[in-house]
Design goal:
The chain has a single domain, classed as paralog of FGE (formylglycine-generating enzyme) (Alpha-Beta Complex), CATH 3.90.1580. Helix content is 10%, strand content 16%. The chain contains three helices and eleven strands, in the order ββββαββααβββββ. The strands form four sheets. The protein has a four-stranded mixed beta sheet with strand order 9-8-7-10. Strands 1-4-11 form a three-stranded antiparallel beta sheet, with no helix packed on it. It starts with a strand and ends with a strand.
Length: 294
């Protein structure tokens, strides 16, 4: 972990999505932060030592989903699958599907493994899974302000974690989508899905993968209430496929964007970007990193 001394910084942005505004001064106390997101190898050690079972590996409780098709009440998670034809971008269910058998060990569904990607970020993490791992390591998840302070690397009011250009001189500095999402990925960054942590240059604080690769959980509930319309975009409510009549969902903020963020869709590969995610949702592009009190 790295120690950051905290302080006052400019949080948010007035230049992109309305939920990021206004820019305001925020103060954070000193804290510790993992240099990278939690990897498959780290999470595997946790499971081996504790026997922990993630939310995606448990069948949804029928009592919680009274209107659901019983055939869908099986372990699973949401997996990105590129459609064959360019769809309208206002409905993410064109490229997200509830997949029985998808979980952290099987990131693309049954038959896929993490054997060759131990150094990639663990995915299919619900909030409770991330919190359980963090507690096991004697750590915690960050607040939104702590996460954004860390991601900015001391670059006040810059659009990205490295400055104001997404790809300065054509260099790929994070794992995000190049091309026309969701059908055309030109792979200029070399990866169709996740990438090894630390593959791209660290930010000025020495932290890797704060932008792109996988979304990261925070402990901050999403506000204001009722402003969840954007949840149809980047990281859908996975279990909405099980029961579309769900109510009283709890949303927390995820940060950093993922390998599915693109210039034509979801430009949330920035420190200021914030996104409401239902806490009982896991997908193939949501992970986390641990923080701790200094």
């Amino acid at each position: 972990m790295l120690r950051l001394e905290g302080g006052t910084f400019l949080m948010g942005s007035d230049r992109f999505y309305p939920e990021e505004a206004p820019i305001r001064e925020v103060e954070v106390a000193p804290f510790m932060v993992d240099e990278t997101p939690v990897t498959n190898a780290r999470f595997a050690r946790f499971v081996e030592e504790t026997g922990y079972v993630t939310l995606a590996e448990n069948a949804p409780d029928a009592a919680d989903y009274p209107d659901a098709d019983p055939a869908l009440l099986v372990p699973g998670s949401s997996v990105f699958t590129p459609p064959a034809v360019q769809p309208p971008l206002n409905d993410s269910f064109h490229w997200w599907s509830w997949m029985p058998g998808a979980d952290w060990r099987h990131p693309s569904g049954p038959g896929s493994t993490i054997d060759d990607i131990p150094d990639h970020p663990v995915v299919h993490m619900a909030l409770e899974d991330a919190q359980a791992f963090a507690a096991w390591e004697g750590k915690r998840l960050p607040t939104e302000a702590e996460w954004e302070f860390a991601a900015r690397g001391g670059l006040s009011d810059a659009d990205y974690a490295w400055g104001d250009e997404l790809a300065p001189e054509g260099r790929m500095l994070a794992n995000y989508w190049q091309g026309r999402f969701p059908t055309e990925n030109t792979l200029e960054d070399g990866f169709a899905r996740t990438s090894p942590v630390g593959h791209y240059p660290a930010n000025p604080f020495g932290l890797s993968d704060m932008i792109g690769n996988v979304w990261e959980w925070t402990t901050t509930p999403y506000a204001p209430p009722g402003q969840q319309e954007g949840a149809k975009c980047c990281a859908p409510d996975a279990r909405m496929e099980v029961d579309r009549e769900r109510t009283h969902l709890q949303f927390h903020i995820i940060k950093g964007g993922s390998h599915l963020c693109a210039e034509n869709y979801c430009r949330r590969y920035r420190p200021a970007a914030r996104y409401p995610q239902s806490t009982d949702t896991s997908t193939s592009h949501i992970g986390f990193r641990c923080f701790a009190d200094a």
